Design the sequence.
């Protein structure tokens, strides 16, 4: 393998062996170093061997080793010759981030912050296996899978304006509940409207810095200190089961001998199984949109109860960072419909794209990049250059550098909480162990990740947020 | 004999499980998965579930078997304490393997601390080694 430096932020592995295209890595020198410590580059090269891959196998600045694709892996496939792979989407289908703005300032909120965080912790079910609020019937679940956040809004969890400001307007229309297994649905039944555990979180934050005033304003941010709410979660057990089911079906249909990595099992986009996986994936995407929409509603209810009003708590945007989608991209001056896999990567459309809602179309799509627990998070805006650079994609977060096992050995949950409290940040969690595992030192420096995205032009900086209160699953 | 051992892995959890037989190694792998979410040794084995899974090869069988822990936990609040009467048989048609076992465990209670969320069992870096001395399995789970 030959790793060539193209410029300060771009590295390339030219095709060799079975690779059909190069692997391109967007990273600063220090980010590259951390990527080289695990199997990220090997996995990016494996992706480059897949049938119908176009241009390159891309690695985003926050990448780390995954299963099949690296986390932070992006690849586009030809509509006719290409494939779709559950390993290019991830088990947590439509894991994503939602950002809301409020009209409160951090100092307004300070005296009530503890009450707000306790309220949210009570209202939003988190952790594993406990605290379900909503028991659905199978028929209702099918509605959720069909209609996503649209179902949630029609059922009283939010407003139409929320849908406007959600990727895909909160619903992928190709969803088909009929190709989602009974097992997956059973796992989903009790988990709708829950945050989950692991790296998922809900944060109250305040604007720390604004880099681009006009765009920030369009996104609803006007001043330093303005409070925002960030929700990071996905499709829970339903999405995980859809991935597992289709991996197994693809193995049973196409075998495993031809695969460089068993987690890279795939189906041709034109095959019946490929089409069914896509429809099932869309259903799981919708489940996750509904999930974040319901949590949004409960957070507003807590604000209403504790501060008397939830007015001004409006969506900035909601992005998916584990998904495969059909999009038109300009390739050699020709518009082509391709299937873009983004696994731990965020869509980053520039101004003018028809997929962006009217309210943002002339500035570009908001890109939300959460940090790790207790560190900064960022809002960026998509660019037109990103289309050429990465099929309109950028990073999705900080990216782990340390195993959970190692984090547990080094950190104690109670101590992390005390240190956050010293900085005035309230932490709520269902488990100390999960707090220790998610220690910010186990993650890459998110500042470096967004600096790289901004410098390369994958997504440009708009604003930075610092946490006031964190709720972990 | 050591039952299982966790190894370093950047984002997920990787473990090896051991046994004198394939069955024992599978049962120990189940305990390792539980260890990521709860303490199986603290769970009273008050309830019983019969588990039957199959696979085209041993790797698929192992994934299907371990997934049952997640499925029963999420759909029936069942937390596993131990695996009993596990049997793995080779099948002629369709070619592959079948596994039967009893899961003994309990319904989750408020005092049980669930400290992790295993999303899925993966094939990533999976190894199944059978030697005259015994069997060792290596599994990475997505968490």
Sequence:
């Amino acid at each position: 393998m030959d790793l060539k430096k193209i410029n300060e932020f771009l590295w390339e592995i030219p095709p060799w062996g079975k690779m059909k295209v190069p692997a391109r890595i967007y990273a600063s020198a220090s980010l590259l170093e951390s990527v080289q410590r695990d199997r990220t580059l090997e996995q990016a090269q494996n992706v480059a061997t897949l049938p119908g891959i176009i241009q390159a196998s891309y690695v985003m600045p926050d990448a780390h080793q995954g299963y099949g694709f690296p986390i932070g892996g992006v690849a586009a496939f030809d509509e006719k010759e290409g494939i779709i792979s559950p390993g290019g989407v991830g088990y947590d289908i439509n894991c994503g981030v939602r950002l809301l703005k409020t009209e409160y300032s951090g100092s307004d909120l300070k005296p009530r912050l503890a009450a707000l965080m306790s309220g949210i912790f009570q209202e939003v079910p988190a952790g594993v296996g406990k605290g379900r609020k909503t028991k659905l019937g199978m028929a209702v679940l099918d509605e959720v899978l069909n209609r996503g956040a649209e179902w949630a809004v029609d059922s009283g969890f939010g407003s139409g304006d929320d849908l406007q400001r959600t990727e895909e307007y909160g619903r992928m229309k190709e969803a088909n509940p009929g190709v989602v297994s009974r097992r997956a649905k059973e796992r989903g039944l009790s988990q709708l409207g829950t945050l989950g555990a692991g790296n998922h979180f809900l944060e109250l934050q305040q604007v720390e810095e604004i880099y681009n005033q006009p765009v920030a304003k369009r996104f609803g941010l006007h001043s330093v200190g303005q409070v925002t709410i960030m929700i990071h979660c996905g499709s829970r057990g339903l999405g995980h089961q859809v991935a597992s089911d289709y991996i197994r079906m693809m193995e049973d249909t196409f075998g495993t001998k031809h695969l460089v990595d068993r987690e890279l099992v795939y189906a041709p986009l034109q095959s019946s199984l490929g089409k069914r996986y896509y429809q099932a994936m869309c259903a799981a995407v919708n489940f996750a949109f509904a999930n974040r929409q319901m949590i949004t509603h409960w957070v507003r209810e807590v604000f209403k109860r504790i501060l008397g009003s939830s007015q001004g708590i409006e969506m900035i945007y909601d992005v998916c960072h584990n998904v495969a989608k059909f999009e038109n991209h300009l390739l050699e001056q020709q518009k082509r419909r391709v299937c873009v896999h983004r696994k731990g990567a965020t869509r980053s459309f520039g101004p003018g794209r028809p997929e962006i809602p009217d309210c943002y179309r002339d500035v570009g799509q908001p890109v939300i990049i959460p940090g790790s627990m207790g560190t900064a998070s960022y809002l960026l805006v998509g660019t037109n250059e990103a289309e050429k650079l990465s099929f309109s994609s950028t990073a999705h977060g900080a990216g782990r550098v340390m195993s959970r096992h190692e984090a547990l050995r080094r950190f104690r949950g109670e101590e992390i909480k005390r240190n956050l409290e010293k900085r005035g940040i309230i932490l709520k969690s269902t488990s100390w162990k999960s707090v220790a595992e998610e220690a910010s030192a186990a993650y890459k420096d998110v500042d470096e990740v967004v600096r790289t995205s901004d410098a390369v032009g994958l997504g440009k900086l708009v604003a930075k947020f610092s946490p006031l209160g964190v709720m972990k699953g | 004999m050591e039952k299982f051992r966790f190894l370093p892995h950047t984002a997920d959890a990787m473990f090896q499980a051991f046994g004198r037989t394939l069955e024992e190694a599978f049962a120990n792998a189940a305990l390792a998965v539980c260890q990521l979410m709860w303490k199986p040794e603290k769970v009273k084995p008050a309830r019983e579930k019969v588990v039957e899974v199959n696979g085209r090869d041993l790797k698929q069988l192992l994934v299907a078997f371990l997934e049952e822990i997640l499925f029963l936990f999420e759909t029936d609040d069942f937390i596993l304490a131990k695996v009993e009467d596990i049997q793995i048989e080779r099948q002629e048609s369709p070619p592959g393997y079948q596994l039967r076992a009893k899961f003994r465990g309990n319904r989750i209670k408020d005092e049980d601390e669930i400290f992790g969320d295993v999303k899925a069992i993966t094939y990533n870096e999976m190894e199944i080694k059978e030697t005259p001395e015994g069997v060792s399995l290596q599994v990475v789970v997505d968490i």
